[in-house]
Specification:
There is one protein chain. With about 650 residues, the protein is an alpha+beta fold. The protein has three domains: about 200 residues, Histidine kinase-like ATPase, C-terminal domain (Heat Shock Protein 90, 2-Layer Sandwich); about 170 residues, 2-Layer Sandwich (Ribosomal Protein S5, domain 2), CATH 3.30.230.10; about 170 residues, 3-Layer(aba) Sandwich (Rossmann fold). It is globular. About 40% of the residues are buried. About 5% of the residues have low confidence.
Length: about 650
Amino acid sequence: MAKKYDAQEIEVLEGLEPVRQRPGMYIGGTGADGYHHLLWEIVDNSVDEVMNGHASKIVVTLHKSGTKATVLDDGRGIPVDMMSKYKKPALEVILTTLHSGGKFGKKNYTHSGGLHGVGSSVVNALSTELIAQVKRDGKLHEMTFSRGKASSKLKAIGNARGTGTIITFTPDTEIFGAKLKFDADLIKERLESKSYLHKGAEITFIDETQSPKVELTFKHDGGIAEYIQKLIVDRAKGMVPPGATAFYKSHENGVKLEFALAWSEATDEYVKSYVNGIPTKMGGTHENGLKSGVVKAMRNYIETHNLTPKGVTLTAEDIREGMVCVLSAYVVDPQFQGQTKERLNNPEVQGQVDNVVRPTVEKWLNDNKSIAEAVVARIILAARAREASRAASNAISRKSAVSHKLNLPGKLADCASTDPDESELFIVEGDSAGGTAKQGRDRKTQAILPLRGKVLNAEQASNDKLGGNKELGDIASALGCGLGPEIDLSRLRYGKIFLLMDADADGLHISTLLLTFFYRHMRPLIANGHVFIAQPPLYRVDIGKETFWALDDQHRDQIVKEKVKGNAKPNVMRFKGLGEMEATELKETTLDRKTRMSLKVAIDNELETDRTINELMGKDVGARFKFIMENAKDVKEIDA
């Protein structure tokens, strides 16, 4: 008999209880990254004071236990006077209430890393103990908290000179487990990078886990122009000669922008990007604008000075090979992807950055012609090496495109190109979605292979079953590089392989089955960076004449909150599957190289990956049950 379900069964989580129930929504997870994210939130509050000219010193102390940290700054100090509406001091409201703080308007902070007023309260909610001390009005005020609730009243405990805030906290073992500790090296690296981004700021790190304790002070008056020199040397890519770095600082076009740029001896490009002092590991529109501006500037310089090489075409990748860049953008109203702020989504920022970078880099090239000519020579060399590599690859693995395609699966819509470096294969869930993808693709470089239903679980299947499975056989045939120990990547027909599934639980399950197959039988594809997971949107949000795409419920709610103004009513449409999308929509959001988002599949730890796949996908139900129970708290709810 079904359990009674009425109004009495409805729960309302109050205060900071939602944070403790679903910590992953606020800090990304309860592993080491989430653990350190608590510290970054408090540090970033102090950095916001520095960024807006209210502080010049920050001290971070990692205490002897390795599980407790203190962050001190000489900023204005969190307000401690009473808030009449709540009948509580402002300090208590800020630390115990989500979406509270002084960063929503622009009166107190022109730029800030904190946007939603949840950072310090989330840290409080996920700490067994948090002690807040504030120096204001000649007094040192103190208040203590535990798991999001006040454990003492605000009181003045002595006299104090100056102003500032001191936060000491210990992450909760109920949330993070008993094994996690702070990583001193990681903290040191993060703090040092911030001292470069905010030149003139003095940031001290005290590591009491060492005996004797270690105290390091970072202060870099050269800012990011000095930072880029360090990055190149640290990556063992040689020294940068004087004058070989382009540096620019701008307050124009609605975005304050700083960037330092150089070319090194490396064969890859390396960009460290930040928004309002927050590292954006996944890049975003500011990084796209930088790359576009650099390429345009270099092309203009080459054409203007008649340096275009004969017999070779310079691609954007050739131009950016060896490029090292630090990009620091300050955006008044940044739109981040998720609370952990790893990607910037503001569409207008791309053009703003491009418009600053292009003329700046072009002027630098014209002012430093000897360096510019050396960079151009390096770009031409990279292009010739790429052309030679492609010719060798074609000679070895794809001598005859016609005969090669005779053995391909019948439902594969192949691309025109026979160059693996530019060819992409999208493995799509279902014939309907496959049809839409075929209409929206770039026929020259993008191939589509539809799958019917869920594929075989390669972790449980025998070799005979694998050999007789049509769906997995079609994938292997399309890729052309073989399986198992005989796999030969020189015969790989597509340099990038995208798993394009519906943005729901079934789609994630199919992606997991395919990843299991690739990991067990075509692992070099993952190890060499050929496999990606496409990120189609789950929602379309129309606000007036503007359209936004949301990856999930949280992203949808963020868009509605930040974009709806006045009496505007958003029109939200949920896609039941890829087949519901128009071809133009799928192209814009998921297929087009310029606008799509995707996740590269990588193996950080072979042993851990092997164990996880075995437990999740293997025949041992007991191991799977144990894994699910141990990791349930880290799993976000998925609307199927």
